[in-house]
Every structure is written in C-alpha cells, then in structure tokens.
Amino acid sequence: MTTKTDEFADHLLQAALGTIEILAIHLGDRLGWYRALAEQGPAGPAELAVRAGGAERYAREWLEQQAAAGILEVAPDGRFALPPGVAEVLTDRSSLAYLAPLARMLAAAATQLPALENAYRTGGGVGWAAFGTDMRESQADMNRPWFEHALPDALAGVPDLDALLRRPGARIADVGCGGGWSAIALAGAYPEATVEGVDIDAPSIELARRNAAGLGDRVTFRRRNAAGLGDRVTFRCGDAAGLGAGRYDAVFAFECVHDMPRPVDTLAAARRALVPGGAVVVMDEAVGDAFTPDADELERLMYGFSLLICLPDGMSEQPSAATGTVMRPGTLRRYAEEAGFTGVDVLPISDFGFWRFYRLRL
Questions:
Q1: Which residues contact 126 (CB under 8 A, 6 or more apart)?
Q2: Who contacts 87 (Cβ-Cβ below 8 Å, separation ≥6)?
Q3: Which domain holds residue 198?
Q4: What is the average pLDDT across 133-143?
Q5: At a CB cut-off of 8 Å and minimum separation 6, what does 330 contact?
C-alpha cells in the first residue's frame, strides 16, 4: 500500500472511533447515566442501573467502553467515575463548554439517513420536523449557554446597537427563535424592551413557551423572575411576513437565515418591519470568506451540519435558495442587497462560539 493509502485508512479508522464515541455519548446523555455519575459519584453497573434506570448488562458494557475511550476513570475499587472537567462538558447545561447536545443532534440526523439518501438522489429535502424532538431540543440546549451568559455582554459592546435596544418601550423581534433562549436572553438584558419570538415550527414555539415559563427548570424559573420578564417575551408560530410594517426597533435572526428556503423574502420582511433608525442583526456561522480544500475544523463541522441537517431542511420547501450551513459572508451580503439593504457590516463581537454577527445597513 502507498503512504497515502495508509494515511487515509488511519483517517477513516479514527473517524469510525469518533462516530462510535458520539453515539455512545448520546446513549449516556439520554439515559441520564452521566448525570447520575456527576451528581452521585462513582458507580458500578448495578449501582448505575439503580440510580438512573436501564439494564445492568448494558450499563456494564457502556461503562467499560467509556473507560476504554478515556471518558470515564476507573477508581481503585473498580467503580467508574466521571472526571469534573468531562462532567462539565457532558452535564453542565449552563457552561459554555456544554457539548452533550452535539451528540444528540448528530444522532438525530443519523436516524434520517434513508430519507437523506432519497433527498440526495431526487433533489428533495428533509424538513426540520422530520428530525424530531432530539434535534429541536439539542440545538436549543447547545445554544442556550451562549445566549444566557455571553449575548448580553456581546451586545453591550456595540454602543449604538445597545442604546437602540435600551430605548424605553423598545420592541424587538426574534425571527427563527427556535427554543426561545435568544428571545429570553434579550428580554433579560433589556428590561425596557418587549421581545416577540417567531418560528414556523409549532413544536419549537411550544418549547420556547415552556422555557420562558421555566417549566421543569428551577434555575430558569428563578432567572426569569429575577430578570422581571413577566409578559415582556412572547412567542408565536409564523414567519417574518407576519411581523407587519414599521413596528420594531430591532429584528434579530439567530443562526437561521442559512436554513430558510427564501432568505431574501425574510430579510425584506425584516426591513419593512423596522421603525426609522431600527436595526436588523443576523448571527450566523463564522465560516471563511471562500471555499478552500483541507479546511480547518470549524469549516469541516459546518459542512457536516450542512450535509446532514441544514441543506436538506432548506431544500424541503421549493423554490429554495438552497444555502446550507456554510453561508459565506458574500452570500449574506448578496441576500441583503436583494432584500433592499445597502450593505452588511460585521459587528465587533468576537469569541462567540461558532458564530459571527452581522448588521444589515439600511
């Protein structure tokens, strides 16, 4: 075999090991086994099954696999322990390092491989609803820490935008709000404002309403009351066309424009919805300006999301711009200009996860 053959064979083997670990993490996350280890300490198979449920024999295989992969540690008494740093990544829903939902998202995509294959053959799509609850909740859960802990300071660092959002009685629209954490964060950061979250996916709107009410989440309930959200954040099922004209001081679109079959229509509706002097802000993936082979890990990850989730979702409704996750800045600029904006500025917000913030010029 050639050196290149050996290298790629090893590359594929490492990818297979990573896939196995992602799916095993998904199982441990959904079964509650990581949380049981994080909250109650080391356990053997029988203890883990008693604490969190599940079959002891499967628990033993999973614990051993996790230790073989270097995720769990084995204590001197033979029980399995979850190290604190790993526990933060897999169980701490408030941490910016929380990535367990990534495994859940990829597992949800994997269940749709037959439908994805058909879409690839026919040019059709696989809509967001087809991916189910795991996909919907995983995206909300993975973005939540960034919206809760980083978004207020990020926006405060853009003085003119921050001043706009602090206007007494300011009205903010959050288009494509998903599980609602972005709208909740905006309402918490700007106590004089009201925020309306809009999404075409009815189950996402129901999830957003539950999240805003803090149902099943004592931490969210306390934060909601402390922030005085009251009725200042609301959610409705619909699209940007329902925003109306001249009603909002700001319209946000967080990580959703690349999914839309007709992004120009959405951006044009957002523009019409503004009061004089208002702002449209788009947060989307921080990909490079142009395609390059042998790309960095961020580009590879975004292409993965696009192949399995976002491009098929965007193509599930026709006609479609078929953007995909890897929406280059030039693509957004073109969409914005076709929607009637004069240009696009990149906001001075850095180190914000996978994302970049754009302000569309009126």
A1: 112, 115, 116, 119, 312, 313, 316
A2: 34, 37, 38
A3: 113-361
A4: 96
A5: 289, 290
Structure tokens at 179: 């599980």
Question: How far, in Å, CA of 92 to CA of 230, rounded?
Answer: 26
pLDDT band at 227 (very low <50, low <70, confident <90, very high): very low
**What is 53-88 written as a DSSP string?**
-S-HHHHHHHHHHHHHTTSSEE-TTS-EE--HHHHH
Q: How far apart are CA 313 and CA 138, in angstroms?
A: 16
Classify residue 241 by its DSSP letter: G
Residue 98 forms part of a structural domain: no
Q: What is the pLDDT of residues 326-335, one digit of tens each?
A: 999 999 999 9
Q: Average pLDDT for residues 82-98, to the nearest whole number?
A: 97
CATH number for 278: 3.40.50.150
> Average of pLDDT values for 284-294?
96
- C-beta separation of 228 from 191 below 8 A: yes
Do 138 and 64 lie in one domain? The reply is: no
Q: How far apart are CA 150 and CA 142, in angstroms?
A: 13
Pairing of strands 343-346, 274-285: unpaired
State the total domains in the chain: 2
| 264 and 332 both lie in a single domain | yes
The enclosing domain of 10 has a CATH number of 1.10.10.10
d(CA 315, CA 106): 19
Cβ-based neighbours of 40, under 8 Å, separated by 6 or more: 51
Q: What is the pLDDT of residue 231?
A: 83
Same domain, 144 and 45: no
Question: pTM above 0.85?
Answer: yes
Cα dihedral 329→331→333→337 (10° resolution): 180
